[in-house]
Write a structure and sequence with these properties.
It is a single chain. The protein is α/β, with parallel strands linked by helices. The chain has seven helices and six strands; from the N terminus they run E-H-E-H-E-H-H-E-H-E-E-H-H. Helix 5 links the parallel strand 4 and strand 5. The longest helix has 13 residues.
């Protein structure tokens, strides 16, 4: 079985995340792709009025119509800072040694790559896949363990969506309708 793992804050999940997931799913010939919202990310802070369970619910609502996608609450359930190696070891336990794990991240992560906890172990537990992101071109000196996947570049960011909400600007077409309604009904990001 070929399983993609896509982690992130998803604060909120947006169309760029979904396009990345969908293209990676097909280009890597995956059987399943699992979204893993983080509880507390090691490399950034979450400073808004959205709890981890809200972010998980938004992910679930965004992907509920795609049977190849699922959401994992593993990192949120841990209630602690999330490290990719722990998440990957969890999925290794669940799916066994015969499963191929594909850890998918954006090219913006490359700048901090060697500050990640147990990065060499991550390379052993999974195939490390980096997808292009606007403004973060692949460097010529990628580590040999890193594979790339080129996707349609979509310049949408969660930070921009949060700013737009604060400024009372529309976010239609930037996030799935179910996510937009969830944000509006709960007054998130204001």
């Amino acid at each position: 079985m070929r399983i993609g793992i896509l982690g992130g804050t998803f604060n909120p999940i947006h169309m760029g995340h979904l396009i990345l997931a969908n293209e990676a799913f097909f280009k890597l010939n995956l059987d399943k792709l699992i979204f893993v919202p983080t509880y507390l990310p090691p490399h950034k802070t979450i400073e808004v009025n959205v709890n981890p369970e809200d972010r998980l619910r938004m992910v679930k609502s965004a992907i509920e119509d795609n049977p190849a996608f699922e959401a994992s609450s593993f990192e949120i359930d841990s209630k602690k800072r999330s490290y990719s190696i722990e998440t990957l070891k969890n999925f290794r336990r669940i799916y066994g040694e015969e499963a191929q794990l594909f850890f998918i991240t954006g090219s913006d992560s490359l700048k901090d790559l060697f500050s990640w906890k147990d990065i060499n172990e991550i390379f052993k537990v999974s195939k490390f896949i980096v997808a292009n992101r606007p403004g973060y071109p692949f460097t010529e000196r990628l580590p040999k363990e890193v594979e790339t996947v080129v996707i349609t570049p979509i310049e949408i960011s969660s930070e921009d969506i949060r700013r737009r909400i604060k400024e009372l600007k529309p976010i239609i077409y930037l996030v799935p309708d179910k996510v937009r309604r969830y944000i509006e009904e709960r007054g998130l990001y204001k």
